[in-house]
């Protein structure tokens, strides 16, 4: 809230000039989010008492005095100042003479301060769009007769569920409105008793409709009670509906009942509105003459005669409701509108001119009284019901006036005067708006505005503003105010006072008070409860996370016991072996421990109760023979990894704590004490961010100057002295750490047909039969991993070349991706093959050398990653990340987006095993074709089948996948640790022994989070876009060679319901003609799709989404005449005859005949045009259909092929017979093959309404099945309904 001018800072000179010292108080309101950044400033005399301070603050802040506390804002003292203390500010530690005294305005007893109400009334909370409900409820609450009668009704809990009892929930709401100290009350219990769910709160309804429906529901609930006829007694009136013959005076009539009187604002067809309620009432009872064709058949005259038909009021209700019908329908614009014409209503309305006071009926009058309406007390007459039902308005407003009267039958006309009591206002347009109520209080005669939770006083000027009369009286989005209903009251019964409540209401009041007290206590507990994130390294379950909720007055010892139970450590460790420490999860940093503070309240330790904390807590555990290490504030935590260059291993981290002002020399001494290494020969490398390695070689430099922060990671070694003498970036230490930081862990799923998978398992099992695991390597003479891979690769390549040469005569050699492998067998018969397939065995022993631990400790634990981390690695869009235009250089050293993931046991998910490039590949690096590189079609092999891929980094190690994953078959899955700077070509080479075929004969697919797979085809691109635990699927099939493209072939079926059908995946090459591609495609179609086609009866054409495009001619050459790209799609179309398209100057149009006589569309037919002339098109259509040129009409179809459209809309929606001479101009724009043209000759039939409706149903069903658009159908408004049985009956299968 903004402080007023008198609350601004006062200059010190004025203070000094004052006779009495003054105290400057600056108060921060912390009770609400919108006020937390605002300040109240008070400059008070030093003699001001604390109680007066509370009064002044309450006045300035707009709060009720006593509903808030004031505490010191700059001290740890959280105790509030005394409310009723007469102690002066100077005696209460306030500092005078211009010094600032900071105070905080806080909640009292867990409740927000009460906003001072100028009205004394309680508002209602708007659930979403329930303003119409709030307006009606406030009006009923302010009606003494209704409220008192509701209080006199007693709820029997044994007979009904209180949750579904509408009268009981209204009773509770009224009690709260009368007795609660809250600013606003929720209405959810009332709407729940209506049987509504949360969706109903978002439905806009008419307040008058709600009034009728709720009154009906109350009458049903009050049957056989004293309140059974309450609604009729208060709101029901009677009127006479009559017809009088003008010749004989015979009158036929009936008596109807009403709850409200609908008044027309503007008569139908008139431009002038009624100026007042009196005029509208006079028009309501004005009779109309029935003459001409509308003559009335008189029972007495036995013929049709002129007559008068009209209404007369016989009896007015206690509370008269007038409904001003401001919502109408504009037949010009076909929209609902709101009439904003001015219509006045008086403060007192004399209804005597409108009542029929005939004591006796004329002898010429015959009674036709509707006894049912008379006796049953029906709420609505037929005439009234019809009037309401034809009102299409959704958001009409109401104005309620009320008068009370003596017995209406004996009441003179002069006493039929009604006093304005309530006006329900609708602000907005016919499309929607907001309801609020102006209601007169009978307690003080003051008018109040009840606008949801806001209640305020208003004047007569505010009421007069609801008359209307704003500009633009018939606008669709006009926003005039008024929509009124009037009730009049002469003698009002007073409201029941609290002390006069019936006993059951007194019990209800007590029950609600207890409920509020319970809620208050609960809020107090919540307000004083600290909620903080808790972590624990569980000895059995690894890292656990939970939320610790502890009262601020609980001690650290009690909080530790609560955390001990929360983390389920009972029976695992004892309570005295646990402690809580301050922890930073983001940096994995132990900030401080709390030695000697076991009896300190948690509120002080955590800095008070807050919605969120900038730190966490860690429940630390120890063994019984260990001692907790103290963590002091200001220390930094360092994870120290010891590196052994001889064995090329990196040990698990050791935690060391240091201070930022310590020097590197002092830091080395700490590490030497923790690791036992020599500080003199020690090298320390700091990893500041991902793979950013910094050698700490300046002895006197501090840790802060070197970039240390809360949590740090260093590598130390002192084993090889000769490596100290070379530059750091050329040393073995740097190379080992660099490879360590760039190694990633991939999960590779091998194909089922893989010849190498089973063989590798079998042979490695035999070779390592003395080992503990099936993949343990031999201890004796063993070839290097690189040699094994090289020998295996060469043998597999030779085998593949031999098989290819032996099958070169086959026509289907290139037809299928999988046919190339039908005769490939696993090369497992040779001894060399035996050794080549034992790579995993070698790798397992190398892994043992890393950690030097048992097999169980060697298992890499895959740490789960958050969705955000996975998504940040690479977007999972439809475009494969491996075929993006950007490529990665082979000399890239690091990727800042992905780094080594720390495992739970402290070991990085990377292998440190060294690897060297095979000498057979040295010196063979070649230059790649940039254009081909951009197209994503580079081949790994040249014409002789030799490898061209060359990479600087070739670390690769594979092991069997041992994790439990139901989605992957672990028997066909490998865990691969690989340097992510390796190229895809080199990665495929290393996978050859496990797949069992050369790398040119299998494809690599990257699996994204949504299980979508995209092929990786850029062989010279690195794996830097991959991250730990990414999944890869290997599929058998010939990999693309240089200049080749993978193509999806779809069949075009123009006259089928689904015109696009997928056939096969194939490969097209640069420089290939269309006919050559058809020659290779047809055998593949015959084998896989059972389609035996003739090459002269098929054509290929462009595919854009589902639209057929350019027809490809046999002599067209790919990449010269036809642009082609990766994952290209084409249509294959089967022709009835030989190809008629011979030249690119021709145009192939798809035509469809429209027959209005039968309301049907014919099949598609193709028309070949030699030019883009409209005349040639019309001649071709005339020739195809025998329609004379002068009678032929045509139009271009719209939308996606097949441009389907409803037969009811085809003549209105399409542009028929455009006045153009060529096809390539607007509105045709036919510039390419595949355009759809409709043609016809007849005018559409004139359909009856029934025929049109029947045809519309058929067309809607047809178009929905084909997935095409249907005519727009506006949203149906949901009818307002109150369910007396507790809720609507739902279809069990609806969900």
Outline the structure in words.
There is one protein chain. Strand 24 (529-538) and strand 25 (542-551) form a beta hairpin. With 1295 residues, the chain is an alpha+beta fold. Mean pLDDT is 76; it is low at 1-18, 359-414, 471-484, 754-790, 803-951, 1269-1275 and 1291-1295. The strands form eleven sheets. Strands 9, 14, 17, 19, 20, 21, 22 and 23 form an eight-stranded mixed β-sheet that branches. Strands 29, 30, 31, 32, 33 and 34 form a six-stranded mixed β-sheet that branches. It has a six-stranded mixed β-sheet with strand order 36-37-35-40-38-39. The chain is built from 29 helices and 49 strands.
Largest sheet, described in full?
Answer: 8 strands, mixed
Distance N to C terminus = 48 Å
Strand content: 15-25%
> Any idea what the radius of gyration is?
45 Å
Oligomerization category of the chains in this entry: single chain
Q: Can you tell me the overall shape? A: flat
Helix content: 10-25%
Query: Number of DSSP helices?
Result: 29
Catalytic activity: Thiol-dependent hydrolysis of ester, thioester, amide, peptide and isopeptide bonds formed by the C-terminal Gly of ubiquitin (a 76-residue protein attached to proteins as an intracellular targeting signal)
Pfam families: Ubiquitin_2, Ubiquitin_USP47_N, UCH, USP47_C
InterPro entries: Papain-like_cys_pep_sf (IPR038765), Peptidase_C19 (IPR050164), Peptidase_C19_UCH (IPR001394), Ubiquitin-like_dom (IPR000626), USP (IPR028889), USP47_C (IPR045578), USP_CS (IPR018200)
GO molecular function, one term: cysteine-type deubiquitinase activity
């Amino acid at each position: 809230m903004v402080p007023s001018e008198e609350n601004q800072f006062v200059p010190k000179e004025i203070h000094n000039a004052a006779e009495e010292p003054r105290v400057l108080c600056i108060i921060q309101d912390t009770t609400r989010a919108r006020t937390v950044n605002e300040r109240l400033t008070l400059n008070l005399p030093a003699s001001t008492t604390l109680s007066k301070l509370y009064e002044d603050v309450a006045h300035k802040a707009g709060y009720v005095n006593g509903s808030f506390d004031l505490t010191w804002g700059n001290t740890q003292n959280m105790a509030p100042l005394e409310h009723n203390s007469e102690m002066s500010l100077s005696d209460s530690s306030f500092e005078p003479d211009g010094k600032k005294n900071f105070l905080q305005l806080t909640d009292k007893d867990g409740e927000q301060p009460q906003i001072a109400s100028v009205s004394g009334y309680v508002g209602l909370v708007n659930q979403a769009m329930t303003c119409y409900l709030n307006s009606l409820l406030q009006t009923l609450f302010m009606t003494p007769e209704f409220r008192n009668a509701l209080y006199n009704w007693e709820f029997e809990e044994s007979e009904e569920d209180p949750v579904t009892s509408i009268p009981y929930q209204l009773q509770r709401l009224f009690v709260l409105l009368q007795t609660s100290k809250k600013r606003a009350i929720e209405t959810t219990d009332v709407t729940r008793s209506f049987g509504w769910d949360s969706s109903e709160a978002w439905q806009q309804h008419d307040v008058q409709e709600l009034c009728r429906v709720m009154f009906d529901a109350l009458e049903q609930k009050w049957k056989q009670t004293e309140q059974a006829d309450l609604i009729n007694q208060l709101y029901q009136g009677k009127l006479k509906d009559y017809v009088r013959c003008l010749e004989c005076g015979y009158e036929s009539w009936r008596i109807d009942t009403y709850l409200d009187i609908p008044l027309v604002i503007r008569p139908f067809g008139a431009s002038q509105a009624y100026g007042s309620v009196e005029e509208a009432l006079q028009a309501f009872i004005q009779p109309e003459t029935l003459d001409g064709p509308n003559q009335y058949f008189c029972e007495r005259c036995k013929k049709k005669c002129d007559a008068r038909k009209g209404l007369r009021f016989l009896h007015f209700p206690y509370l008269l409701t007038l409904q001003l019908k401001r919502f109408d329908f504009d037949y010009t614009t076909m929209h609902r509108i709101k009439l904003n014409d001015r219509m006045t209503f008086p403060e007192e309305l004399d209804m005597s001119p409108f009542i029929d006071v005939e004591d006796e009926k004329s002898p010429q009058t015959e009674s036709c009284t509707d006894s049912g309406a008379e006796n049953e007390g029906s709420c609505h007459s037929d005439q009234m019901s019809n009037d309401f039902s034809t009102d299409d308005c959704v958001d009409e407003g109401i104005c309620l006036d009320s008068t009370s009267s003596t017995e209406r039958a004996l009441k003179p006309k002069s006493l039929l005067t009604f006093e304005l009591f309530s006006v329900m206002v609708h602000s907005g347009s016919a499309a929607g708006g907001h309801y609020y109520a102006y209601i007169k209080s009978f307690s003080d005669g003051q008018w109040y505005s009840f606008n949801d939770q806001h209640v305020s006083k208003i004047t007569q000027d505010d009421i007069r503003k609801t008359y209307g009369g704003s500009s633009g009286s018939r606008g669709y989005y006009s926003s005039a105010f008024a929509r009124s209903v009037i009730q009049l009251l002469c003698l009002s019964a007073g409201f029941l006072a609290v002390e006069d409540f019936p006993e059951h209401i007194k019990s209800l009041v007590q029950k609600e008070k207890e409920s509020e007290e319970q809620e208050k206590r609960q809020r107090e507990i919540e307000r004083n409860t600290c909620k903080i994130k808790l972590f624990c390294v569980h000895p059995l379950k690894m890292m656990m996370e939970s939320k610790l909720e502890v009262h601020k007055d609980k001690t650290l010892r009690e909080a530790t016991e609560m955390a001990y139970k929360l983390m389920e450590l009972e029976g695992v460790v004892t309570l005295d072996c646990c402690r809580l420490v301050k922890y930073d999860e983001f940096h994995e940093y132990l900030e401080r421990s709390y030695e000697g503070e076991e009896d300190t309240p948690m509120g002080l330790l955590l800095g008070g109760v807050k919605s969120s904390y900038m730190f966490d807590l860690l429940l630390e555990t120890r063994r019984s023979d260990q001692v907790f290490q103290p963590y002091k504030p200001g220390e930094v935590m360092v994870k120290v990894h010891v590196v052994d260059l001889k064995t090329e291993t990196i040990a698990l981290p050791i935690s060391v704590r240091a201070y930022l002002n310590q020097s590197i020399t002092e830091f080395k001494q700490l590490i030497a004490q923790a690791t036992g290494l020599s500080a003199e020969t020690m090298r320390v490398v700091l990893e500041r961010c991902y793979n950013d390695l910094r050698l700490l070689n300046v002895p006197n430099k501090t840790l802060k100057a070197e970039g240390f922060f809360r949590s740090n990671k260093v590598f130390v070694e002192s084993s090889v002295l000769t490596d100290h003498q070379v530059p750091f970036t050329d040393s073995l230490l740097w190379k080992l750490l660099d490879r360590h930081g760039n190694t990633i862990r991939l999960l590779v799923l091998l194909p089922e047909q893989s010849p190498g998978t089973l063989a590798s398992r079998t042979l490695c099992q035999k070779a390592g039969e003395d080992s503990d695991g099936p993949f343990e390597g031999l201890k004796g003479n063993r070839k290097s991993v690189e040699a094994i891979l090289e020998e295996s690769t060469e043998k597999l390549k030779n085998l593949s070349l031999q098989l290819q040469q032996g099958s070169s005569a086959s026509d289907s050699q290139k037809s299928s991706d999988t046919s190339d492998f039908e005769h490939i067998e696993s090369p497992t018969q040779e001894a060399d093959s035996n050794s080549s397939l034992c790579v995993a065995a070698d790798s397992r022993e190398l892994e043992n050398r890393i950690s030097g631990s048992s097999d169980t400790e060697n298992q890499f634990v895959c740490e789960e990653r958050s969705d955000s981390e996975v998504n940040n690695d690479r977007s999972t869009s439809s475009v494969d990340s491996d075929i993006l235009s950007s490529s990665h250089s082979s000399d890239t050293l690091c990727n800042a987006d992905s780094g080594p993931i720390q495992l739970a046991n402290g070991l990085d998910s990377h292998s440190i095993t060294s690897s060297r490039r095979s000498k057979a590949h040295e010196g063979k690096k070649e230059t790649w074709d940039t254009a081909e590189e951009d197209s994503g079609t580079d081949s790994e092999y040249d014409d002789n089948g030799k490898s061209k891929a060359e990479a600087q980094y070739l670390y690769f190690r594979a092991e069997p996948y041992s994790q439990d994953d139901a989605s992957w078959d672990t028997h066909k899955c490998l865990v691969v640790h690989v340097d992510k700077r390796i190229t895809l070509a080199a990665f495929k080479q290393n996978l050859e022994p496990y797949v069992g075929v050369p790398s040119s004969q299998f494809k690599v697919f990257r699996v994204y989070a949504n299980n979508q797979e995209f092929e990786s085809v850029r062989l010279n691109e690195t794996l830097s876009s991959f991250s730990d635990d990414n999944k890869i699927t290997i599929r058998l099939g010939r990999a693309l060679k240089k200049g080749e493209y993978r193509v999806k072939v779809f069949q075009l079926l123009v006259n089928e319901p689904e015109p696009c059908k997928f056939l096969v995946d194939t490969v097209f090459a640069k420089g290939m003609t269309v006919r050559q591609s058809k020659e290779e495609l047809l055998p593949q179609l015959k084998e896989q799709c059972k389609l035996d086609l003739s090459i002269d009866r098929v054509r290929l054409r462009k595919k854009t989404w589902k639209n057929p495009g350019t027809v490809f001619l046999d002599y067209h050459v790919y990449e010269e005449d036809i642009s082609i790209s990766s994952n290209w799609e084409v249509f294959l179309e089967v022709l009835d005859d030989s190809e008629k398209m011979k030249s690119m100057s021709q145009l192939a149009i798809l035509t469809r005949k429209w027959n209005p006589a039968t309301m049907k569309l014919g099949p598609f037919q193709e028309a070949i045009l030699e030019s883009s002339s409209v005349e040639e098109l019309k001649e071709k259509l005339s020739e195809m259909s025998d329609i004379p040129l002068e009678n032929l009409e045509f139009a271009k179809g719209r939308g996606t092929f097949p441009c389907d459209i409803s037969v009811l809309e085809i003549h209105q929606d399409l542009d028929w017979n455009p006045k153009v001479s060529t096809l390539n101009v607007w509105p045709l724009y036919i510039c390419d093959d595949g355009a759809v043209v409709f043609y016809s000759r007849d005018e559409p039939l004139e359909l009856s309404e029934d025929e049109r409706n029947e045809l519309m149903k058929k067309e809607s069903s047809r178009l929905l099945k084909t997935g095409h658009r249907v005519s727009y159908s506006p949203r149906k408004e949901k009818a307002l309904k109150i369910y007396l049985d507790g809720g609507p009956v739902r279809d069990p299968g609806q969900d």
